[in-house]
Amino acid sequence: MYFINGVEYKCPIPNSRYLKLGDGFFTTIKYFNGRLLLLDWHIDRLIYTAKRLLFIKFNPDVVYQDILSFSKNKNNGIIKITISNIISNDFVVSINNRSLLYTLSFTKIPKYYSKWYLNGITLGISPIKLCHNSFLAGLKHTNRLEQLLIYSYIKSTNVDEVIVLDINKNIIECCNSNIFWRKGNIVYTPLLTYAGVSGIMRRLIIKLLPKFNYVLKEVFASLEEIVNSEEVFITNSLILIISVNKINNYYFHSKLLFKILSKYFKEINFI
What we know:
- The chain is built from 9 helices and 15 strands.
- With 271 residues, the chain is α+β, with helices and mostly antiparallel strands.
- The protein folds into 2 domains: 2-109, Aminotransferase class 4, branched-chain amino acid transferase, N-terminal domain (D-amino Acid Aminotransferase, Chain A, domain 1), CATH 3.30.470.10; 113-267, D-amino Acid Aminotransferase, subunit A, domain 2 (D-amino Acid Aminotransferase, Chain A, domain 2).
- Strands 7, 8, 9, 10, 11, 12, 13, 14 and 15 form a 9-stranded mixed β-sheet that branches.
- It starts with a strand and ends with a helix.
């Protein structure tokens, strides 16, 4: 079931530029124990992305109210909101005279996320590299062919996730998550100047680090730098934080910061 501009549909509307051209953007929100986690930050992300992608008719108040309505009486799960343009002028009239599609969908949280959280994960290295595009860097847009190829590669291996590099062989992110690594009290995460998605949990981790006496550095870094670190973890809005046990043949035994942040997330009822 989909919730499109306040109306329920059984399938996505085909007449959108999102489906035809990838002309859209989205965010995924964790719904947990009756709460939409970091909803205001997700709305901020949509506002910022709409401005960057020239969606001048984007109305965050409408989206906010639609999300609240759609989330009522839901169990724990994932709410995805996708914003896209409409192609046909005739179609605009049939969905409340709005020129944008606000599509919401609900799915269950994958069961393997809890296994990842408890046991940690193994990372590989994606052979598919991200191209540079400073106009789209940081945005969660719907033109995701690179991620689809990366995801297909993961399915052909025995790893849980992969580190994704850019064309200069700098670490950018993982397929569906941001990545951090720690050396002492310094925590590193990739600069997203030319590629990658700036995640909501990435933003939260960056904000929290000073609270726990850690220093953040956003860097252009090669694989050699991450494999020489003490601790590695990945983040996104759904998994929150997952510890990395192994990257190829390199093992990471410390979970110090992972445990600190996990304890904090439990205290604020995010986990």
